[in-house]
Automatic annotation (TrEMBL):
GO terms for molecular function: catalytic activity; FAD binding. Belongs to the FAD-binding oxidoreductase/transferase type 4 family. The keyword NADP does not apply. Its cofactor is FAD. Residues 33-214 form the FAD-binding PCMH-type domain. Keywords: FAD, Flavoprotein. One of its GO terms (biological process) is respiratory electron transport chain. This is Hydroxyacid dehydrogenase. It comes from Bordetella genomosp. 4.
Amino acid sequence: MSLLNALQSLLGPAHVLTGDDAATYLQDWRRRYRGTALAVIRPDSTEQVAQAVRLCVQHGTPVVPQGGNTGLCGGATPDDSGQAVVLSTGRLNRVRAIDTANDTITVEAGCILQAVQQAAAEAGRLFPLSLAAEGSCTIGGNLATNAGGTQVLRYGNARELALGLEVVTAEGEIWNGLRGLRKDNTGYDLRDLYIGSEGTLGIITAATLKLYPQPVASCTALLALDSIDAAVELLSRARSGFGASLTGFELMAGDCLQTVVQLFPQQRLPFEGDSARSPWFALLELSDSESEAHARERFEAVLGEAIEAGLVTDAAIAASVAQSRALWHLRESIPLAEAEQGKGVKHDVSIPISSIAGFVHKTNGLLQERFPNVRNVVFGHLGDGNLHYNVARAPGQTEADLLALQQDIYDIVHRSVIEHAGSISAEHGIGQLKRDELPHYKSALELGLMKRIKQALDPRGLMNPGKVLQA
């Protein structure tokens, strides 16, 4: 029996997609990569995933796991050989259990992040992972890329939020590691091997995740700043003044927000005059466990001191939930505004916070010297040292012109990242986009150890080939 027929027999013909039915699964969100596949399959249980993987192993067929297909590095897109099977986890979308005494939630990999947040909220708890794609990205994809988002400063990234996993191995076995334990010193941490591995070692099918108490109150403010140096100093003051209550600190170059309000006129900056044209903005969020009055008093005290010190030139403090959402919507619309303006050269880097201002000053200068008038689109999660340091077209430059310079731009930016003791990937992963860059910035020993792990867990090399590691 052919593999296609065997998969149809296992899953039903309606869940083995080919031709036009498979098209949306074969291109990444940024439209940078498009592949072909033997089929796209949609199992609805862990057992079906395991059986499908075993069939693929028998036929020597590669498997490309895919969640919400919102990744930014081509990590869930097949190559153009047409030999792979894309395995979508979209039907694995059940909330299996919520344990409020243990503050955990167990969900399947295809659960949309927003649905997990909602399930937690209905149980009176908070699941804090939050990012712009939360209405369409899935928990499996979040874990496979070790997603970060806007609240890493307080709660950590996806790895810190996961206590246990269920995984289908590259051999089609099911590892049930769904333990809700915060302490388990019984050998190697297999969970952390699979988190961040981008489906190259196995397929995450479910996870037990940490929950937290809902904050009693929160305060949000958009602050206008004269420099990125002021932003770094402001973060230091905010961490001292708010401690663990500081849940978000986002940095945005002024051009980013001005582009948002130009392209999306329904949004507006809460400033007039010079403040609206500030070169930098910061978005702060404080979560408080006592009361609204206590939160606002602390918030205004710390911001007042920052204004008096000359770090903040203007401030807009949200007076309602609607105003807070509007401020966050400005921040979350930056990637959409970028997409409206065409493809750019994107970087997802992390830098020690103490070096971020120096990195931006130096790298902006190097790029302008080499490629005059390209636009530096800089924004990100300053609180955890993660910048989305993107480069957009200069006036009169075509999209193709800019993309032809991609490798030269990568060289400048990535070398500067390493000079400032940083990493070329903070939260988006490696995928196809940075696979060939990785050997320039990882030591031979690190790469060798990674390849040994890959060989041990996926000896046939069938799990998401061509991603993360060079063949």
